[in-house]
Request: fold
Amino acid sequence: MSYLSIEHLTKNFGGLSAVSNVSISVNEGELVGLIGPNGAGKTTLFNVLTGVYKPTQGKVILNKDGKSIELSKLPPYKITHQGVARTFQNIRLFKDLTVLDNVKIAMNQQAKYGLFGALTRLGKFYASEADIEVRAHEFLKKVNLDDLAYDLAKNLPYGKQRQLEIARAMATGAKLLFLDEPAAGMNPQETHALTEFIAKIRKEMDLTIVLIEHDMSLVMNICERIFVLDYGKLIASGSAEEVKNNRKVIEAYLGEEE
Amino acid sequence: MQQFLQQTINGLSIGGVYALIALGYTMVYGIIKLINFAHGDIFMFGAYVGMVAVMNFNMPIYLAFIIAMAVTALFGVIIERVAYKPLRKSTRTAALITAIGVSFLIQNGVLMIMGANIYAFPQVIPNQFFTIFGLRLNMLQLVIFATSIALMIILQFIVSKTKLGRAMRSVAVDKDAAALMGVNVDNVITITFAIGSALAAAAGIMVGLYYIKVFPFMGFTPGLKAFVAAVFGGIGIIPGAMIGGFAIGLIETYVAGYGSTLYKDAVVFVILILILLVKPSGLLGKNVKEKV
Amino acid sequence: MKNLFSKKNLIWLGLLIVFFFLFQFLIDVRIITPYYRTVLYGIGIFIILGVSLNIIIGITGQLSLGHAGFMSIGAYSAAIVMQNMPDMTGLLLGMVVGAVVSILVSFVVAIPTLRLKGDYLAIATLGVGEIIRIVILNLEITNGASGISNIKNLISWPLLFVFVVGAVVLSANFKNSAIGRACISIKEDEIASEAMGIHTTKYKVIAFIFGAVLASVAGSLYATTYYVVKPETFGIATSINILIIVVFGGMGSLTGSAISAIFIGIVNMLLQSYAEVRLITYALVLIVVMIFRPQGLLGSKEFGLDKVLGFRPPSFKKSRKENSK
Reply:
């Protein structure tokens, strides 16, 4: 049984089928790529996987700890509680908050007090807050962003913002990450740094990662398997070599630089 | 049955007025995505101008209509240029709060200038009753209804058959694309405000004639009800505002006639909340989701 | 390491004690006359109202325009209970009743309306405020349009002080906690917030109810300060007045709301004879602030003791240096 099982997923908007009968399975610990021309339905697929949209047909199932959880029935925040997190195509950091606060919010579930504790400061409040503070800093150190902890997210350079978004997703405790075009807008050096970063966190934190990308150097370098979407349908899957030489894939991208 | 038809006539009459005010809300929202909180007060302003024209300048009512519509249109344009234009790039919350400020300003401004007393709008249209098919019709109601319909027809003509109307529709769909196509977006927005305000002024005079009372806070309740009407029909959609106006007018009249006059205002708010929960895009509207 | 008895908290406590006794003294020797005393009480009540609305609007980003509705629930509850029990027990009981009713009403209102966004939410809450007012206008127990008068005047500086400080402290504690952080993230980016595991509806409702209860308490204090409660006192104009306080002080800044309430309260007092000019001025202030300085006086920052005590987070200096390259 695979870790993440996307079964015959279809998402229609009115008459338009943005995602059409897509079936993908991802194994635990894999680093998988999702590519395709613009408008192929990749982000829509991510949105269905993370609960932003409900599928028109089909299911998304997470198999972990021996249990099968149907993600497609859950609202986004509950999906996150199951250990699934994402980043966004257009960065959605909490811009006016500090880097540290961005991470703390992702760790909100770990607060060991409720409204009463917050208002009265009794019980576990101070201990819990201190704990979250320490862990948030440790987290930032692990991803090399700790020296920017008190900067506002909006003031970070673009590359660091993208990194922070990934770090924030990780801070939720997720074991399955969906990264939506993490290298968008980056120059080759930044992309290279990001590639190393993704490989590092995958290994150190034992993550399963699915990423959407247009930058082929990133995808071909790092993805163990690649899935190709075109007009909402899955047209090819396999290793980087297989996909690169697949006729259907070449046709879909005809005219596009690799 | 006769009671029902009677109420229907009453409802259509006030419905026409709500429709005129609702059109102003819907056109402005369609074009700059702002709920012009101050629109009800523009309606009130129009009523005062009309009243002053008749009372102090002894104008015949049709001339007062025209003057009031023109002056109020100008007033609306000034408000747009001074208070709303600077906020075109701001958050919608900021724009809404500014609109609230403008509303507050107009109300208290008129209060200061004209005083708190309730004026009586000169009853220059005879309140004659005549009977057709056993129904009592009021000359005033007829004039109001006819005028509302006439104005709506003119508006519909402008929007669908003229170059200006095309420009208005294009700006409502995509402001930037329209600008790229050579449409002077600023002017279109200004004209939209002008038309909306003029219609509100017409409604103001009609309410003055029908309900007689003219006072600084008279715009609040009709304004809110017309807003509900606009949302009901689909905010941003012109035919929606017309349908919504008549619908709210009828519902309100039926509730007052068959239910209780006390709660007739509350019912309209309840309708608003229901619409927003069930189908916020309104009767004729489409659901547009935010892009993630 | 932060804790209940940190240096900062103790300094605040000290300042509050000094402030309390200073004003008590000024009242006792009549430098603060009964007239100014009432102004002081009014300011206190609006500090509570401003801070409570700020939690909803400034911290959680939900534009609520019906706040006066919850104030009226507290005011009328206190007034009604005190008709039969015109003493402190009655007042406190009335407050509790008001708070409970407010929790119920705000919960019922919140669940459906908080699904709406921006403008629609604002209008819906406005409608709710109006519905509450119309219901109060038509019930027998609230005595309709005439309202309830001859409410026993039990307000005093100590009582007011306790409640104002309590409200501000509770609000600050709300803001500086995981719950506050969740709410702020909702205001910043609701979609991202939910993607990070925050149950956005739950937190919006919590913030809404919290604000409503504080407003209700303020309403109860209002009833016992001004002897009379009438439906028209708690209409849109009052909701807008509270909104002006929040916007002027800075949406998201609790101390900003407090400072704003004090400032506006004093201006109100000075311009008392010029009622309409005053209102026109506030309307203009609202418009001008939104056009030229939408973040208000303090933005979302708090006027706190941190700067005074020289508190700097450890990495602060280092990152400052790096960024100035």
Notes: DSSP finds eleven helices and four strands in chain B. The mean pLDDT of chain B is 87. The interface with chain C takes residues 35, 83, 86-87, 90-98, 100-102, 104-105, 108-109, 111-112, 220, 224, 227, 231, 262-263, 265-266, 269-270, 272-273, 276-277, 280, 290, 292 of chain B (CB under 8 Å). The CA atoms of residues 255 and 264 of chain B lie 6 Å apart.
